[in-house]
Amino acid sequence: MKIAFLFPGQGSQKPGLLNDLPHETSVKKVLDEASSALNVSVYNLQTKEALSSTTSVQISLLTAGVAAFKAFEAEGIKPDYVAGHSVGAFSAAVAAGVIDFRDALRVVKIRGELMERKYPQGYGMGVVLGMDEDKLQSLVSQAYDEKHPVFMSNKNAPDQITISGSLSGIQRVLDEARQKGASKASMLDVSTPSHCPLLSSVSEELAEALHDIPFHRPFIPYAGNRRARLLFDPVDIRLDLAESVSSAVQWHDASVVLYENGARLLIEMPPGNVLARLAAKAFPEARVMSVTENGFSDCQYIAQKNKRSKK
Amino acid sequence: MEATKQAINKKRSWTTRLDAKKKRIDSVKNLVNGMVIPTDRIVDVMEKLIQPGDRVVLEGNNQKQASFLSEALAQTNPKKLFDLHMIISSISRPEHLDLFERGIAKKVDFSYAGPQSLRMAQMLEDGKLTMGEIHTYIELYGRLFIDLIPSVALVAADKADRHGNLYTGPNTEETPTIVEAAAFRDGIVIAQVNELTDELPRVDIPGSWIDYIVVADEPYELEPLFTRDPRHITDIQILQAMMVIRGIYEKHEVQSLNHGIGYNTAAIELLLPTYGESLGLKGKICRHWALNPHPTLIPAIESGWVDSVHCFGGEVGMEKYVAARRDVFFTGRDGTLRSNRTLCQMAGQYAVDLFIGSTLQMDSEGNSSTVTRGRLAGYGGAPNMGHDPGGRRHSTPAWLNMMTSNDPLARGKKLVVQVVETFQAGNKPVFVESLDAVDVKNDTGLAAAPVMIYGDDVTHVVTEEGIAYLYKADSMEKRREAIAAIAGVTPVGLTHDSKKTDSLRREGLIALPEDLSIRRTDAKRSLLAAKSVEEIVQWSDGLYEPPAKFKSW
């Protein structure tokens, strides 16, 4: 049975998230490294006030994911696959040995700052449940106009898809979706229209920042965000990390690719259990856990047991 | 003339295939012990026995997988082995597609790829894989003897002896067909076995058809695909099962049949000893089956409903039960089941009165498909069994019952029944204006839309609303009306004018539960002969041994 580690993105944060990490020396090392690289204690970034900034959120998520991964690694547990949602993809890239943690911190900080600066007000994201992609896409196309742009963005599940753009455009789509049979359609508490073409200039600047850091071949196969393929070439991964912020995250397909490749134990790195819930619904035959919900030691125990049984 | 012919004949060798085979066999002489390939040398040997561009048929069934050989092939060096043309009836293991990702294989012909359907679609899009065709099983097996003749066959068996005789036991499935196509055209046959022994329980495939055997490092993979836990059968499925028994099996006196693997057909199997018995139908319907050993058929067998069952493959846990009921099943001298997918598919296509199965989508004319956009899944046995081979001639009551005219040359028809609920999980309508299969054809450039069962072959559609007797419709218009009348509040159902319902009922084009004297409130789980896997085990006198994942006690 193969193991996949999943790294969550924005929306999974909560105050004090770094305090909930496993109390291991490997974790402490990662947190210290982050603090020294950023010249600020990472513990200050995870307070309620600090987490109102996208930049703090992204750095905290990256740090938490990498720290938890290192804790597993210290116990001799290495996944067969990694994938991360949005900023979580940076944690996955660090885990796969593609980029260095310090470089990731620097670039994620830039990523957060660019996203904050780009659209100060009047933009955001919404989510629609219980409506399939084709139907939602047609509603989005109808609602779109240049003054009130709106796009279909992340496909988290076949019937859980986000939309991004101007608040008025989003509202139009949400109203229509509710009328046309969606089981739920609501605004998300996000102030940036992520994962749509409105952020293409962020992608361009991010690409430049990513060009300055060394990339290596992944030693763990890595599933990308945009096209939901396993990526082996560092150049492809760099492109995915840069483009993902202005492209829809094909999360559902990415996790299906892991499953089709044989992953049957999926463990979500902290914080939260958003990805674990999606996976549990998508793959009833797989074993799905999250560090936050099941605890580090249970996850570690199951992964260890699984390793011994080989298949 | 004479002289010219001799001149031509002299130039040509008539044994090129055999010569090439001998050469390959010579090249591995030092790596093998007679017929036996040492387990740890399999990759080296494959790199020599197989050549770039070869057509390789790899045994990947629904259930049994030549998993040791497929993993070994995926480990070969793509610099030595490339451009293979793979023929795999069921693409279900990750390494089946790793072959393409790594550049070892290029082209594929297959029937079913459900468990790898997203990767299939991606690789096709990325140009890593080129498509042969998505075949029905019999077409694929048939073409192994016509224009897809394999250079190499990689198969799995339970046991072999020193002479290469194989025991495949209950899981014989498609092994004999694949081996035959390669062995008698000077192809190379490699069989992985779980065990090498001195004496076999019986010989399923003679050793003279086999070139090499290799003992696998672990037993071949086997999936219990046909076990349905009665716990998950719903009241709606029971209502549909009652309608099928009354409105189709009894009405047309259906004696021989094949069932799909859904819960709705499992419900029918479990209603025979209860509801069927109460209608006095035992011995009149459902006597002969083309079916895997479904555990849910046990109560009907134990109650004396079933005369015979021929199987495509085995089912994990059913071995002892089958051996103890040899009057019903096809069994060898050793007592275990003999299955054969090719013959059972053919029997299911040509020899039975009725096929019944389910689908994910159906259009207003009754065409159905299980493909979803962005996925390339193919289909299982349904397209073979779910169609009416035009040249058939039968004299069973059900067959003759499908005649709708007095024409002296009128002929009967095979019954092809689709049973669906109007909406599937996630609030998705089953009845749609246009099948996703049409989009898939356009997206992927397939030669034909991957329709599972063509509408003109479908004789009956059953929903929770009622039955549409499509074979009676004398025009496309009528056909559409009958389908729409039972399609609920789906886009297709909403086109139905409810004023027409009564006339359709009078003409016998549709039947509602009350027309069949079925009260919806009677459709309860308490009617099931067994309500859990545990109760099936009790019915079997403890002979059925369910896999761990079905044990809840």
Automatic annotation (TrEMBL), chain A:
Its EC number is 2.3.1.39. GO terms for molecular function: [acyl-carrier-protein] S-malonyltransferase activity. It is an enzyme of class 2 (transferase). Keywords: Acyltransferase, Transferase. The keyword Transferase applies. GO terms for cellular component: cytosol. One of its GO terms (biological process) is fatty acid biosynthetic process. It catalyses: holo-[ACP] + malonyl-CoA = malonyl-[ACP] + CoA. Pfam families: Acyl_transf_1 (PF00698). Residues 6-296 form the Malonyl-CoA:ACP transacylase (MAT) domain. The active site is at 86, 195. The keyword Translocase does not apply. Belongs to the fabD family. This is Malonyl CoA-acyl carrier protein transacylase. It comes from Domibacillus epiphyticus.
From TrEMBL, chain B:
GO terms for molecular function: transferase activity. It comes from the Bacteria. InterPro entries: MadA, NagB/RpiA_transferase-like. NCBIfam families: mdcA (TIGR01110). This is Malonate decarboxylase subunit alpha. It comes from Domibacillus epiphyticus.
